[in-house]
Write a structure and sequence with these properties.
The chain is α+β, with helices and mostly antiparallel strands. The protein has two helices and six strands. Strands 1-2-3-6-5-4 form a six-stranded antiparallel beta barrel.
Amino acid sequence: MSASDSHERRVHFRGTPRSGKRVEVEYAEGDGAPVRACTRNLGVGGAFIVTDRPPPKGTILNVILHVPTATEPIRIKAEVRWHMPSGGTQPGGMGVKFSGLEVDDLLHLNEYFASLTGSDE
């Protein structure tokens, strides 16, 4: 990972990331086929999505978050900001930055965060 990627990770996850919390997610480039994955970190500003083949940095994705406390999936645009290769026991993936998060979706995410009990699953 480059120094700029490391800086991007610090800036991207500033605030309230939820390290270790897994949420099912689907993402697609444009009208492409959706890819099923999961998050490793999730915050209101973005997420780390576990994947072996992340799209290039700068790619805009259509993301669907399956938050357990929400009645409907959260649909949002996200930009791929950085990549992390797999290493040892750490899975590889990509950091994405959300854009245009609606107030209701923000409330659903905050409700989910409030429901967490400290478990990593």
